[in-house]
Specification:
With 273 residues, this protein is α/β, with parallel strands linked by helices. It is built from ten helices and eight strands. It has a single domain, classed as TIM Barrel, CATH 3.20.20. The protein has an eight-stranded parallel β-sheet with strand order 1-2-3-4-5-6-7-8. α8 links the parallel β7 and β8. α7 packs parallel to α8 and α9 packs across α10. The protein is globular, with a radius of gyration of 17 Å. It starts with 13 loop residues before the first strand and ends with a helix.
């Protein structure tokens, strides 16, 4: 159980820029009903949530949920691992392009490249899908939300060669200080997750130290990536407080200043709220 002091609300409101309210974390951890999850998050200062789509069904759900709840915004996409195994990739991309036009859909993602879970033979479909999502983002003047797992070089190369949209977010940024500099040079946002609280994440904290103020975001990626000291439990937007406090420590900046910065950056990417 968490000690009560861990639930002290943040000094100012922040946005959870990446979560999956629709994904349950094991059978006994069924996701809280949306209204309850939002109320719990709001009680600790997480006042807005970006619900991220991973396939056609979850993208439709994200769009529907964002239409229903004023504090939820949606993004829509085929996750690179979903794209790799989609027998109807073209039709799915066409549906994502339709959903992308909705006003409550504020970004295109998560898309990108995942070389960790995908065999080489399926990588072609990921590349096709990634480029198509970049096109959809540009056509709608919306940010692209990137899932980059063990694929830094190819993700950067694709963005530069294919032509990145105005706003690019590396969700769950996993690069080092060197990559943070490349992102900074290109004006790409880096979203830091609970991983910044992990003992072995020194390279990531080094990246967090050099990332420019105006390009940092935060997220839970819940129900995944639960931050310390809550590891072992399913993640939720409530736990963003631990990640934000870690960010404030690593950057040696007051909590309130970090919250205001994170909120303003999130509003620039996904807003107006
Ligand atoms: Zn991801
Ligand atoms: Zn995700």
């Amino acid at each position: 159980m968490s000690a009560p002091r861990e639930l002290v609300p943040l000094a100012a409101p922040v946005v959870d820029t990446h979560c999956h309210l629709d994904i349950a974390f094991g059978e006994e951890h069924v996701v809280a009903p949306v209204a309850q999850a939002l109320a719990d998050a709001r009680a600790v200062g997480v006042t807005k949530i970006i619900q991220v789509g991973c396939d056609v069904a979850s993208s439709e759900w994200a769009a529907k949920t964002a239409a229903e709840f004023p504090d939820v915004w949606a993004t829509v996409a085929l996750h690179p691992n979903a794209a790799a195994h989609d027998p109807n990739l073209e039709a799915s991309l066409a549906r994502i392009a339709q959903l992308a036009e909705l006003p409550q859909v504020r970004g295109i993602g998560e898309t990108g490249l995942d070389y960790y879970r995908t065999e080489e033979a399926l990588a072609t479909a990921q590349h096709t899908s990634f480029r198509a999502h970049i096109d959809i983002a540009r056509a709608n003047n919306k940010p692209v939300i990137i899932h980059d797992r063990d694929a830094h070089e190819d993700v950067i190369k694709t963005l530069l060669e294919h032509g990145a949209p105005d706003k690019v977010v590396f969700h769950c940024f996993s690069g080092d200080a060197e990559m943070a500099k490349i992102c900074a040079e290109n004006g790409w946002f880096m979203s830091f997750s609970g991983v910044v609280t992990f003992k072995n994440a020194e390279n990531l904290r080094a990246a967090l130290r050099v990332a420019p103020d105006e390009l940092i975001l935060t997220e839970t990626d819940s129900p995944f990536l639960t931050p310390a000291p809550m590891r072992g439990n399913p993640n939720s937007s409530v736990n963003l407080i631990h990640t934000v406090r870690a960010i404030s420590q690593v950057r040696d900046a007051p909590e309130e200043e970090i919250c205001n910065l994170l909120y303003a950056n999130a509003a620039r990417v996904f807003g107006p709220f």
